[in-house]
């Protein structure tokens, strides 16, 4: 995952819950020097909240754009589907990385044209 233009990362998750998997994997994709360039805020929820609290991920970029994802526990889902019939929390790691890299390419193109 390209993190050149990433300025902030905020996540809330329970490390013991399956719906927090994507947020955990995004954290594992960060490079070793990420803490010096990116403001990272991680909130770990207790094991007792694994079935009640959603996992969230918010990324902030240099241009001010914020991307947010939320994964609800399966037990709390109440048929939240979009027009295509997919659940709103079906974003996988691949989807998150693709969206981040798409925005990264746009910012890189703007920087190349400007400078």
Automatic annotation (TrEMBL):
Intracellular or extracellular location(s): Mitochondrion
Q: Record's InterPro entries?
A: Ribosomal_mL53 (IPR019716)
**Its domain of life?**
Eukaryota
- Asked whether the UniProt record includes Ribonucleoprotein among its keywords, one would answer yes
Query: Which keywords does this chain's UniProt record carry?
Result: Mitochondrion, Ribonucleoprotein, Ribosomal protein
Q: What is this protein called?
A: Large ribosomal subunit protein mL53
Per the record, its GO cellular-component terms are: mitochondrion; ribonucleoprotein complex; ribosome
Record family assignment: Belongs to the mitochondrion-specific ribosomal protein mL53 family.
Q: Which residue ranges are recorded for the region named Disordered?
A: 74-93
- Name the Pfam families for this protein: MRP_L53
């Amino acid at each position: 995952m390209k993190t050149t233009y990433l300025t902030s990362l905020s996540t809330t998750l329970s490390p013991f819950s399956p719906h927090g998997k994507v947020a955990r994997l995004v954290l594992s994709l960060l490079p070793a020097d990420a803490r010096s360039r990116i403001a990272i805020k991680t909130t770990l929820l207790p094991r007792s909240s694994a079935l009640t609290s959603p996992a969230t991920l918010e990324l902030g970029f240099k241009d001010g754009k914020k991307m947010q994802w939320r994964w609800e526990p399966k037990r709390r889902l109440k048929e939240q589907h979009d027009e295509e019939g997919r659940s709103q929390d079906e974003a996988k790691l691949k989807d998150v990385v693709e969206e981040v890299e798409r925005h990264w390419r746009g910012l890189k193109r703007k920087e190349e044209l400007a400078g």
